[in-house]
Amino acid sequence: YFVRMVGYSFLEDPRYVYPYEALEGFTMALMMTSAVTYVAKISTPTTIASVMGLMGSLFFGIGKGSGSLFGGLLMSWLGTRWTFRLLAGNALMCAVGYTAFQMCHILPKRRETKKEKR
User: How far apart are CA 40 and CA 52, in angstroms?
Assistant: First the structure.
């Protein structure tokens, strides 16, 4: 998402949007795969359908609706270029934070679990 948003913010000619739009399939597939995998891990066999439905409604309903609303408000205040740059920075910070969490908390926990099983 970071690369796409930074790219959008520097476009002068609308014809050059196509390479960034081609990344939509890749980024959306990664996001949905990780969301579905996470839902499968946190739910039980009896609740998985409900939790998947909740995840879908939150993403496609509330997430996209509120994202359009607040994104539009940001664009009216900051302009298109700075809105995309601000959201690109937000996406980068989220990616760095998630990576740090994985490296500092999740991976050491997995190593401990593997050692205990041996």
Answer: 8
